[in-house]
């Protein structure tokens, strides 16, 4: 990993040195040790010296509460600062106007966040953020993770650029008609603008890290050169409380992701109050990021602070800044000069002497407006240092005032997150502060106007020139159709032939299929296996030597199993993303790969395989964001089912993930019973997601670790259609007497084997004829039925597939699965026969498969009793038959 670039300045340059000679002696001593014994010895001595003092303030993870880059070390600002200030003023105005106009309908929106962060965005748009037309990034541009509550400001800038109209701004948060603007960054709702959903909070920072990592993955595997594509994540200091926000910091530091910059808007406020009322969020975040290996740039104070820092000859000001908690700073930003003199400067005679030379106006400027996040030169300096830093990701901690420029009723107020509009008087004050040419007459109306300069104005010309130089508009989402050829049928046909006499689990069948597909000359390299951990549990160790596990540094050690055929092989161009025990990180990986077709114009085929319930239950929020981001790929719930994993117990036994998945409109959920069903579903998934008419969906398959003989795919018409639609008749009842009771047994997944045994028992012991149906997707059957119901309301004559498939089937229907009953019950309203479901409701437990299935009442004998009970309710068998069966089978 390359060494970080050494900065030509020090954070301490802005603090007066009361004894330069002593400082020079210390530096000379360190130079001497470094020369004689090396830098590690010098660092060791420094750590021992800090340890000896026992002073928390000397902790190397935390620096003084001042700017990392002193004013004297700031680079020359390359733009027209006055011009950019006017452009920013228009954006501020239109963002506030849009939200205020929407408040007439009770919709509201968020004003204060963008008001505090406007320069953080504008500086990037003018000087850093590459668009999709930037040739140096190969059409990828930069990836921008916009803080969700700042979206009004992004819409305002798109309006200024001519990408949005006034009518569209007036449809902010009005999407029912199909042409409104979503409240937050939602790619599914506005797919030409937004690339990444960032609300729910916390998912943005996590996703940004894995996006930056996936960019490197594409580069290292030779798929695309992403070396000039940078990931920017704009976050709130309160958002960093979310566990996902900091979950992958160590990964970014460990892998040296210098293509990643976090910009944390430290306005010191959460949604309803201070982030750290009694502490300091900037200092806390600095220590956290430094410990994780990040380059930290603190950009806290505006230029107005320079002269009082210069007067701090004994460090009194630095001490006061460090000891003042955030909630008190929030108070300082709203109080008068007398309060500041007494409560901030009055605590120390040295501070009092500094305050004597400051006017009241100067004091108010210091505490109310002079923040580095509001000064483009300081923001530019931080951004330039970030993109030029090598060897580590960078976090910029930029201090701002929440509600800045919105007036004293907004600025630094605890309630400003919930304040959705400005009054007419507040707009006048804002107009005057921003020096916008908007006449009073335009503000006398009930509705505040939008405003923008003329198309031929210098502002518009400057804006267009800057974005043209950076590669066009941003943010922007662009999809160029790049369909993938379908793999040869050979791999799919192998599963359709069955396993002969060999017993294999459907988990292994899927892995074998993907292993064969990864050999395809055209599309094999585009598969991206993503595993949280336990790849060997899923039988994936056979992929290790051939595909390799991705590592940006390759393999720097001799693996312990090197002498084995299936040894643990890491490689810089490795194909497998083996993430360790992190479902959140793995799904973030999957999302980056699943949306690469849009982000980078490179369709990838990820499959994310996880253990039992730990996918949907743990990260359902991320799956929702995946759908929002229009991700495509295969999600595999391995070791599925509530009774199929022996001995794992309550926290592992999954009987409900299909129910959770059914709530996600983009997830096509399947519970295949046989290997050939897996083949049919995966083949169709490749066609639907990567063919000429690609759809924005992803597939969820549950596969099992119970080994069974896999039958060949039945012959006859309609089998593949039934698999994909969710139901087909697998095995008819054996010949029986003409007056024999009849019924239909339906099952998904491994439960098919229970009803096959039940079919034999019913025929042998009770003279009952049962047809066997495989139901690979209860959810898809329900969705088809709902669509048919909606069509009938519009006058169409459409009958649900499940109704047509079961039409005329004699007797009641008994549906069985290793899932809670609500999963198959999804289709009950559209089944004309008498309906009974059998499932695994309740908590899981530890035991053998046989004992667990008997406990939940889903084993073959229990299914027989349920079938006889269904027949008894119809009068097809005697009521006492049910009691007799229970006694015979010990139920």
Structural class, please? alpha/beta
Parts with pLDDT < 50 across at least 5 consecutive residues = 1-6
- What is the alpha-carbon Rg in Å? 32 Å
Output the CATH topology of the largest domain. Rossmann fold
Q: Assign the CATH superfamily of the largest domain.
A: Thiamin diphosphate (ThDP)-binding fold, Pyr/PP domains
- What would you say the CATH architecture of the largest domain is? 3-Layer(aba) Sandwich
Count every beta strand, where a strand is a DSSP E run of 2 or more residues.
Answer: 20
Shape: elongated
Total separate domains: 4
Q: What is the terminal-to-terminal distance?
A: 65 Å
Biggest pleated-sheet summary: 6 strands, parallel
The whole-number mean of residue pLDDT values reads 93
Proportion of helical residues? 40-55%
Function: Component of the pyruvate dehydrogenase (PDH) complex, that catalyzes the overall conversion of pyruvate to acetyl-CoA and CO(2).
Protein name: Pyruvate dehydrogenase E1 component
Domain Transketolase N-terminal: 147-307
Keywords: Magnesium, Metal-binding, Oxidoreductase, Pyruvate, Thiamine pyrophosphate
Describe what this molecule looks like in 3D:
- With 891 residues, this protein is α/β, with parallel strands linked by helices.
- It has 4 domains: 1-58, no CATH class; 72-302 and 371-470, Thiamin diphosphate (ThDP)-binding fold, Pyr/PP domains (Rossmann fold, 3-Layer(aba) Sandwich), CATH 3.40.50; 490-540 and 576-709, Thiamin diphosphate (ThDP)-binding fold, Pyr/PP domains (Rossmann fold, 3-Layer(aba) Sandwich), CATH 3.40.50.970; 730-889, 3-Layer(aba) Sandwich (Rossmann fold), CATH 3.40.50.920.
- It is 40% helix and 10% strand.
- The strands form 5 sheets. The chain has a 6-stranded parallel beta sheet, with helices on both faces. It has a 5-stranded parallel beta sheet with strand order 1-2-3-5-4, sandwiched between helices.
- Helix 3 (81-102) packs antiparallel against helix 4 (112-127), helix 3 (81-102) runs antiparallel to helix 18 (424-434) and helix 30 packs across helix 34.
- The protein is elongated.
- Residues 726-859 form the Transketolase-like C-terminal domain.
- GO terms for molecular function: magnesium ion binding; pyruvate dehydrogenase (acetyl-transferring) activity.
- Keywords: Magnesium, Metal-binding, Oxidoreductase, Pyruvate, Thiamine pyrophosphate.
């Amino acid at each position: 990993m390359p060494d970080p670039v050494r900065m030509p300045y020090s954070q301490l340059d802005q603090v007066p040195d009361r004894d330069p000679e002593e400082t020079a002696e210390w530096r000379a001593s360190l130079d001497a040790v470094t020369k004689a014994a090396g830098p590690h010895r010098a660092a060791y001595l420094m750590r021992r010296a800090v340890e000896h003092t026992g002073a928390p303030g000397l902790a190397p993870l935390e620096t003084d509460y001042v700017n990392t880059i002193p004013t004297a070390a700031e680079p020359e600002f390359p733009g027209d600062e006055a011009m950019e200030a006017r452009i920013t003023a228009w954006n501020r105005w239109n963002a506030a106007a849009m939200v205020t106009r929407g408040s007439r309908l009770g919709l509201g929106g968020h004003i204060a966040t963008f008001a505090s962060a406007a320069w953080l965005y504008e500086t990037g748009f003018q000087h850093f953020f590459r668009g999709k037309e930037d040739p140096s990034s190969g059409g990828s541009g930069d990836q921008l993770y916009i803080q969700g509550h700042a979206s009004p400001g992004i819409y305002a800038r798109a309006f200024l650029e001519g990408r949005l109209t006034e009518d569209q701004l007036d449809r902010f948060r009005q999407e029912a008609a199909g042409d409104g603007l979503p409240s937050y960054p939602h790619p599914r709702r506005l797919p030409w603008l937004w690339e990444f959903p960032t609300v729910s909070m916390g998912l943005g920072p996590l996703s940004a890290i894995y996006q930056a990592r996936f960019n490197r993955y594409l580069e290292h595997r030779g798929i695309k050169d992403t070396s000039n594509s940078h990931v920017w994540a704009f976050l709130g200091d309160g958002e960093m409380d979310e566990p996902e926000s900091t979950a992958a910091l160590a990964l970014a530091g460990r892998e040296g992701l210098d293509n990643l910059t976090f910009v944390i808007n430290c306005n010191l406020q959460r949604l309803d109050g201070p982030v750290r009322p009694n502490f300091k969020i900037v200092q806390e975040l600095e220590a956290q990021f430094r410990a994780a290996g990040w380059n930290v740039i603190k950009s806290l104070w505006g230029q107005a602070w320079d002269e009082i820092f210069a007067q701090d000859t004994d460090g009194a000001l630095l001490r006061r800044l460090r000891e003042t908690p955030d909630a008190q700073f929030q108070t300082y930003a709203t109080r008068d000069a007398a309060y500041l003199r007494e409560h901030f400067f009055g605590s120390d005679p040295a501070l009092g002497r500094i305050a004597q030379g400051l006017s009241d106006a100067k004091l108010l400027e210091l505490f109310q407006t002079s923040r580095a996040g509001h000064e483009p030169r300081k923001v530019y300096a931080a951004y330039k240092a970030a993109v030029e830093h090598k060897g580590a990701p960078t976090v910029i901690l930029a201090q701002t005032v929440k509600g800045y420029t919105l007036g004293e009723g907004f600025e630094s107020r605890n309630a400003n997150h919930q304040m959705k509009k400005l009054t007419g008087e507040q707009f006048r004050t804002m107009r005057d502060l921003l020096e916008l040419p908007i006449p009073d007459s335009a503000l006398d109306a009930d509705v505040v106007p939008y405003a923008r300069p003329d198309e031929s104005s210098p502002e518009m010309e400057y804006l267009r020139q800057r974005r043209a130089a950076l590669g066009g508009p941003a943010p922007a989402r662009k999809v160029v159709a790049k369909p993938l050829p379908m793999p040869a049928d050979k791999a799919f046909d192998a599963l359709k032939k069955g396993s002969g006499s060999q017993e294999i689990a459907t988990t292994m069948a899927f892995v074998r299929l993907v292993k064969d597909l990864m050999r395809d000359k055209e599309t094999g390299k585009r598969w991206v296996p993503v595993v949280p951990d336990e790849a060997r549990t899923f039988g994936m160790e056979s992929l290790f030597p051939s595909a390799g596990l991705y590592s940006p540094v390759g393999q720097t050690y001799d693996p312990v199993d090197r002498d084995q055929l299936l040894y643990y092989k890491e490689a810089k161009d490795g194909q497998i993303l083996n993430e360790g025990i992190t479902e959140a990180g793995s799904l973030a990986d999957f999302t980056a790969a699943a949306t690469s077709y849009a982000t980078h114009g490179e369709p990838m085929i990820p499959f994310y395989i996880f253990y039992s319930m730990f996918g949907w239950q743990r990260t359902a929020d991320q799956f929702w964001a995946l759908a929002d981001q229009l991700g495509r790929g295969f999600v595999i719930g391995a070791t599925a089912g509530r009774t199929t994993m022996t001995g794992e117990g309550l926290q592992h036994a999954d009987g409900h993930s299909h129910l959770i998945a059914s709530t996600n409109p983009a997830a096509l959920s399947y519970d295949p019973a046989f290997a050939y069903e897996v083949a049919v579903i995966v083949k169709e998934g490749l066609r639907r997601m990567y063919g000429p008419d690609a759809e924005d969906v992803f597939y969820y398959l549950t596969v099992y670790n119970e080994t069974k003989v896999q039958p060949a795919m039945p012959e006859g018409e309609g089998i593949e259609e039934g698999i994909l639609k969710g139901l087909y008749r697998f095995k008819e009842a054996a010949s029986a007497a003409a007056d024999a009771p009849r019924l239909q047994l339906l099952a998904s997944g491994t439960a098919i084997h229970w009803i096959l045994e039940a079919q034999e028992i019913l025929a042998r012991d009770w003279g009952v004829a049962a047809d066997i149906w495989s139901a690979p997707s209860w959810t898809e059957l329900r969705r088809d039925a709902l669509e048919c119901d909606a069509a009938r309301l519009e006058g169409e004559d459409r009958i649900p597939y499940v109704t047509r498939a079961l039409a005329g089937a004699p007797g009641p229907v008994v549906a069985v699965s290793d899932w809670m009953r609500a999963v198959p019950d999804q289709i009950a309203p559209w089944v004309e026969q008498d309906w009974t479901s059998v499932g695994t409701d309740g908590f899981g437990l530890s035991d053998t498969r046989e004992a667990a299935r008997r406990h939940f009442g889903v084993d073959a004998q229990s299914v027989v009793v349920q079938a006889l009970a269904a027949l008894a309710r119809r009068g097809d068998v005697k009521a006492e038959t049910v009691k007799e069966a229970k006694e015979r089978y010990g139920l």
